[in-house]
Write a structure and sequence with these properties.
Length: 453
């Protein structure tokens, strides 16, 4: 038996351990999931929804305990950890109703034929998830897969196995045997799971892993949904409310220590307002409290581990060596804690302008025109979120329509209203989920047709 020990990134202390799943056992785990699937499907949506609601509401009711585990295992401030745990059950009934509507059979008739379009489960779904929202990310994949009648094998990140296990256990305690199972480990277990006899892989994580999964899934033409990284831009137009724009930039660059797929990684500000916007952001940055997430008032906790810390600091150091200017932060980092940092004078040749940073760094570029802002913001192979701040709503909306990301926010974050898809464009997403069309990606569409009588 080999153990995976999980460490608190704020203190270095062990938080707990799980048993690593030997890769050789994965085919048997998949076989159990396959055997359990027909009965789970046969229960029907209403009975499945009842069990899933009960399990998720019970998890939410433990938000204080589970939120603390999130903070201890990956570092985010306790209030955010508790908020994440609470979100597991919040709105779950509405979410399940939306799935039921999306997957209900549809009758389509023409002059000659009567067809019924069904959305059947695919079978066994592997959910492979990252560490940055260690309970919410599993929930985002696992819940729609189960509601559609699939059985699921969750492979949580090796950085947050305890959170993954706690979430899955909440389901395992309520659902029939083997409807949900967990595989623990790192890329070896992930690769074996992808290559095993699963029907679908729902993945959230880095672009590099996504590419690897797509290649391995291609042999069996398995269905995949890949939600990957980003390099989200923010544009600040001349008539924007600069206070609000700076507040948003500070929040969305530093929350979860910048370890958010839709965090603001590049800021393009029109030259006429660049100085004032920068002053405001610098001021807010200096007032951001960095501390162990369990401490009162902590706004930014540690990076998840030393590798992520080193990656972020290397990008900052390289940018500074290439001429970027440190306008706030940039020093006082200690252990896994990085002080929120504002950089100016960013140029396209710097890695920090092109590659995902995933750290608490705000990169400001002053631009001469709106055209330049749009062109530079879109000049990336990624395309997850984008944000535009402007005073004239109609005009700002026209700028937003020219952004090539999948989700664009106007004077707010990129994520859409309930019922809209969570979707990445270009190399940030391959398939998507949430919304009617997203829920259907966990199913096989079938059409049964007879002559009209
Ligand atoms: P990662 O790709 O390193 O790991 C994600 C998961 O994949 C882990 O469970 C890991 O063990 C597993 N894995 C690694 N190699 C594998 C392989 N070859 N085959 C199968 N599984 C494998 O990502 P991470 O560091 O855990 O997470 C951070 C990344 O996730 C960032 O790029 C971030 O932008 C992205 N992310 C995207 C979204 C989104 O909605 N688009 C949401 C959250 C995070």
């Amino acid at each position: 038996m080999t153990l995976l020990i999980s460490y608190n990134p704020a203190t270095g202390d062990p938080v707990g351990e799980v048993e690593i799943t030997p890769s050789s056992e994965i085919p048997d785990i998949v076989a159990l999931a396959r055997a359990a699937q027909p009965a789970w499907q046969a229960l029907g949506h209403e009975a499945r929804a009842e069990l899933l609601t009960r399990a998720h509401e019970a998890l939410s009711a433990r938000a204080d305990e589970l939120g603390r585990l999130i903070t201890e295992e990956m570092g985010k401030p306790l209030a955010d950890g508790i908020g994440e745990a609470r979100s597991l059950g919040a709105g779950v009934r509405e979410h399940l109703n939306e799935i039921a509507e999306a997957l209900a059979p549809e009758v389509v008739e023409d002059g000659r034929l009567h067809s019924v379009v069904y959305h059947d489960p695919l079978g066994v779904c592997a959910a492979i998830t990252p560490w940055n929202f260690p309970m919410a990310m599993p929930q985002w994949m696992v819940l729609p897969a189960l509601a559609a009648g699939n059985t699921v094998i969750l492979k949580p990140s090796e950085e947050t196995p305890l959170c993954g296990q706690a979430y899955a256990q909440g389901l395992i305690d309520v659902l029939p045997s083997n409807v949900v199972q967990v595989v623990h480990g790192a890329d070896d277990q992930g690769k074996t799971l992808v290559e095993s006899d699963v029907d679908m892989i729902a993945f959230t994580g880095s672009r590099e892993t996504g590419r690897h999964i797509l290649r391995s899934a291609s042999g069996g033409l398995k269905r995949v949904i890949l939600e990957m990284g980003g390099k989200d831009p923010m544009i600040v137009l001349e008539d924007a409310d600069l206070e609000e724009a700076a507040k948003f930039a500070a929040w969305n660059s530093y929350r979860n220590a910048g370890q958010v797929c839709v965090s603001t990684e590049r800021i393009f500000v029109l030259a006429g307002v660049a100085e004032r916007f920068t002053e405001l952001l610098v001021e807010m940055t200096k007032n951001t409290r960095v501390a162990n997430g369990l401490e009162d008032g902590a706004q930014v906790g540690p990076m998840v581990n030393a590798t992520q810390r080193d990656h972020v600091l290397a990008q900052v150091e390289e940018a500074v060596a290439q001429g970027a200017e440190v306008l706030a932060g940039g020093e006082g980092h200690h252990d896994n804690f990085i002080m929120p940092t504002v950089l100016g004078g960013i140029t396209e040749d710097m890695a920090i302008a092109r590659e995902e940073t995933f750290g608490p760094v705000a990169c400001i570029t002053s631009v001469a025109s709106e055209e330049e802002a749009i062109e530079r913001a879109n000049d990336t192979p990624f395309g997850l979120g984008a944000v535009v701040f402007g005073g004239d709503v109609e005009h700002t909306a026209r700028v937003a329509r020219r952004m090539t990301a999948g989700m664009i926010g106007i004077n707010r974050a990129a994520a859409g209203a309930e019922g809209t898809p969570w979707v990445g464009a270009r190399q940030s997403g391959y398939g998507f989920h949430r919304s009617r069309d997203g829920h259907r990606q966990f199913t096989q569409t079938r059409v049964v047709t007879r002559p009209r009588v």
